[in-house]
Amino acid sequence: MTCRTGAILRAAYDDLHVGIVLYDPDTGAVLDANDRLESIFGFTTGELRDLSVGTYTANTHSFSASEFHERLRASADGEPQSFVWRVKRGDGELVWVRLHLSRRADGLVRAEVRDVTDSYHTQRREELFWRLLRHNLRNGANVLTGHGERIATEAETEGVRRSAAVVRDTAGDLGRMAESVTEIERAMRGEDGGRRRPVADAIREVADDLAVDRPAATVEIAERERMWTVVDDAFTHAVAHALENAVVHADRSGPVVDVAVGPSPNTGRVEIRIEDDNPPIPNAELRALDDRAETTTTSHGSGVGLFVMKWCIESLGGELAIGSDDHRGNTIRFYLPPKAPST
């Protein structure tokens, strides 16, 4: 079929902040484009009409021009397409774009194009950061552990042995921090799609696992109302950290952690309330959770357990609230979107 050169976009498309381009699905030719598309691609519409898709596809990207044509044809057949593509602009700059292809009533394909270069690079830098952080924490912990054990074995004075114990304890903290970083990374990526489950049942499973390592502790779960939500690794990590923190930081034998599940009185969301009778969580730990607070060497807190809870719950579309009494007792609340029971 020959290229249909008479098709045009309405002038109103030029007012949009998203690029719009009209393709002939048979030839891959550009028929028309709005102003925003021209600024993203770095070509005028007239220039694009004379260029093949391969000309403005970055040759370093695994997504080829032939695959683009296949996507066009699939969209023309009634199967909308969404994908990321690397474009070589008219000035030679390479940019990342996200496209959504859909079929028009006249059989042509309309593409919505968004420049995602900044967010794409941010995502890649974030992935690199996580890898480096995990690697450095784990390696540092192993080095400290090895040297600490050697010093303790060969030490001739009690003072040196105490220092060796501090080194080993610090190494253990770093190792646990590396595990927490992995948990946060998985939560943010949403690798586990999760499934709808009764909230109290999911919490009981976490409590049962905790009882294996902490048999002296008691977790009492009160289900005020049957509530369902999406349960995945992020949910499990958040609840596990909340329960374990309440047990580990207890300064009395046989600690008891009270958990209540029910609807939030204000919003109807799932409310998970976890209460302990421990000394108050330090203000430095709580301030560090504030997104608006400036992180300094004196305000970063001593661990990442609260961050794991915060980021895991937020990855599920929820939020975390923490309250502490002046003398004793802490209350952690998770608010999560309620879901209908699975059928």
From TrEMBL:
Primary location class: membrane
Location in the cell: Membrane
A GO cellular component annotation in the UniProt record: membrane
Superkingdom of the organism of origin: Archaea
GO molecular function: ATP binding; phosphorelay response regulator activity; protein histidine kinase activity; protein kinase activator activity
Keyword terms: ATP-binding, Kinase, Membrane, Nucleotide-binding, Transferase, Transmembrane, Transmembrane helix, Two-component regulatory system
CDD domains referenced in this protein's UniProt entry, alphabetically: PAS
Name of protein: histidine kinase
Known EC number: 2.7.13.3
Domain Histidine kinase residue range list: 132-340
SMART domains: HATPase_c (SM00387), PAS (SM00091)
Recorded catalytic activity of this chain's protein: ATP + protein L-histidine = ADP + protein N-phospho-L-histidine
Hydrolase keyword on record: no
SUPFAM superfamilies cross-referenced by the UniProt entry: ATPase domain of HSP90 chaperone/DNA topoisomerase II/histidine kinase, PYP-like sensor domain (PAS domain)
UniProt GO BP: osmosensory signaling via phosphorelay pathway; regulation of DNA-templated transcription
NCBIfam families per record: sensory_box
Topology class, membrane: Multi-pass membrane protein
